[in-house]
Amino acid sequence: MNSDKTPSKDINDVEQPLISHLAEIRTRLIHSLMSIFFVFILLSPFYAQIYSTIATPLINKLPEGTNMIATEVASPFFVPFKLTGFLAIFICMPYLLYQLWAFVSPGLYKTEKRFAMPLLVSSIFLFYAGIAFAFYVVFPLVFGFFTSVAPAGVTVMTDISHYLNFILKMFFAFGMAFEVPVATILLVSTGIVDYESLKNKRPYIIVGAFVLGMFLTPPDIISQFLLALPMWILFEVGLYLSKRFVPKEEEDWPTDAKIPDDL
């Protein structure tokens, strides 16, 4: 009798945590989507002003008397709303990462929580810093270069939909590029690569940064350099911090520890 009930009890014990985890994922996903929708509703009355602000770096560099254009009938309405939706996601990013952290953190050790929390906060800050760097530093230089090299008789008039796709790509590229210190620390802390090995590979990493900059940015040396140089500097920062704050495995054991005779 008892042997017949034991398997069903074990299955229930396995199914119950699985169902509770799925329910928690569903709840946190709903909260995340609601936060994005709420911010989107707050921003939607200002969709035109938001697009005008984001388009400022290009508009300021366009030849006098020219403007941006819309080649599709619905573009003047849908493109600014699309930008507003992405902006809502960017604004909600800390809350979205908090929901992810709240789900994962119960399964972490106390030392892992102390180490992971600063990385989470710094990754959010670095992502926003990358976007700000692209908007305030890279865009004015890149758009100034593009408009200045237009052949004679060619009027630069960018489509608003193409401009949106371009800036979203650049925002994502620079936001992810600024995560290099976090990625470096994680590589060293998890033991995938040790500090000395990563330090010895510095020349290859620098070349890789410029190659990556070539693929992620437009085909001009200015934007490529402006992406590769911060990646190199941030790699050096991450390398220093990984040596400074990531504990070595041998430090977990006393140097004068003796091996028991019975082992």
**Strand elements, count:** 0
> Span between N and C termini?
45 Å
Helix content: over 70%
The secondary-structure class comes to mainly alpha
Q: What would the average pLDDT be, to the nearest integer?
A: 79
Gross geometry: flat
- H/E element sequence: HHHHHHHHHH
- Major β-sheet annotation: none
In terms of quaternary structure, the protein is: single chain
Uncertain spans: 5-9, 250-260
Radius of gyration: 25 Å
Count, helices: 10
Strand content: under 5%
Give an overview of the whole structure:
The chain has 263 residues and is mainly α. It is 75% helix and 0% strand. It is flat, with a radius of gyration of 25 Å. Residues 5-9 and 250-260 have low confidence and may be disordered.
Summarize the structure.
Helix content is 75%, strand content 0%. With 263 residues, it is mostly helical.
Layout of helices and strands:
Blueprint: H1 2-43, H2 47-54, H3 56-59, H4 75-104, H5 110-148, H6 160-177, H7 180-189, H8 195-200, H9 202-216, H10 221-245
Helix pairs in contact: 1-4, 2-4, 4-5, 5-6, 7-10, 9-10
Which features does this protein show?
263 residues; mainly alpha; 10 helices; flat
